[in-house]
Design a protein that fits this description.
Two copies of one chain form a homodimer. With 208 residues, chain A is mainly alpha-helical. Chain A has eight helices and no strands. Chain A is elongated and about 80 Å long.
Chain lengths: 208, 208
């Protein structure tokens, strides 16, 4: 969502400085939103699918190893506990308990040896839709003012005001959720949006 | 990098269909690359910093809990092993061994109870620079043909050819690294790029 706010805003601001034609700014902005939402939504979906396939293939390998080389796999379980400074006498019963159930044994290896969390295949589609939807919604915030305002520079001013306010609100809310200072979170997203737009504006004006 | 290839390519293709002026396509493309590389690089850096701060604050909380309520924290360690079906007699020495060293105890809680991997603070800067650099490099692939070619439609054709080839190569290489079929990986990134560009082209043409 922050990218959806920032990139179309910066692009529109950059083009305003360079071409000063509202309909071009709106066309470029909508084209960017269409491309960005598809690239990020579909890209996110396929990345999540790839993670899932990767997890499944690693899991199949671990299952095969517990069948073919159970001794080595038990040693790997023991190594995890050796890393916690446990004595060999106390490790042995732990390893036997875990290895008594193949499902549990493989789960232990996946999580503690390889550090994998089991991905949820249903989440892929949901997260793709959320990413694409947020990108479109976010992108319409900076672009709508250009469609409504009478002049392109009025559009730019309203766009800057609502986008920076939206970026601040987004960063503030995200800061609250992740436990960092909401004020700091809000200022961070505003600074990113401001720098990206200033660069786009300056570059577009310089070459035009 | 795939986003860096896809979005500027789709934007340039979309504008070609709508405005047919090479210098506008190049200006919009460069503005998009500037905005996208800053938004994603800086956004990635701050996200990595936030992860690090979040990890540190959770770790501080765990350290405090092992000091203030050690009994409860030992129970939480025992719960992890109960989840693996171990008997109470074999759990007790394991818990004592882990809790004997506070550093190890807290590490265990972070990783096995909360599922956190320790983030590397140096990686934040490195990954930000990589993201921004890849976005710029990726973005120049679809844009350079417009700068060099004699006509805008020639530029579009060369841009489409080199970008789809680069997307395929990128997806192919990524497929090899993550263990999915390279051919499938290559086709996936090409399909994303193609769909995003078709949508941008169609939308831009339709509204102009």
């Amino acid at each position: 969502m922050a990218d959806g706010l920032t990139v179309p805003f910066a692009l529109a601001a950059g083009l305003t400085g360079a071409v000063a034609k509202t309909h071009l700014v709106v066309i470029a902005g909508l084209a960017e939103i269409a491309a960005g939402s598809i690239a990020m939504g579909l890209g996110g979906y396929l990345a999540a699918r790839t993670d899932f396939d990767h997890y499944e293939s690693e899991k199949a390998r671990e299952i095969r190893e517990t069948e073919e080389v159970p001794g080595l796999e038990k040693e790997e379980v023991a190594d995890v506990f050796r890393g916690y400074g446990m004595t060999e006498e106390s490790i042995a019963p732990v390893v036997e308990a875990i290895a008594a159930d193949r499902q549990r044994w493989v789960d232990f290896m996946m999580r503690f040896e390889l550090g994998f969390e089991e991905p949820d295949p249903k989440r892929a589609l949901h997260s793709a839709a959320t990413i694409a939807g947020s990108y479109i919604l976010g992108g319409m915030v900076p672009l709508a003012p250009y469609m409504i305002a009478s002049g392109i520079y009025t559009g730019l001013k309203i766009s800057a005001a609502v986008t920076l306010a939206a970026l601040f609100a987004f960063g503030y809310g995200k800061g609250r959720l992740t436990g960092i200072s909401p004020l700091r979170g809000g200022l961070q997203t505003v600074v990113i949006g401001g720098l990206a737009s200033a660069a786009a504006f300056g570059l577009a004006r310089w070459i035009s």
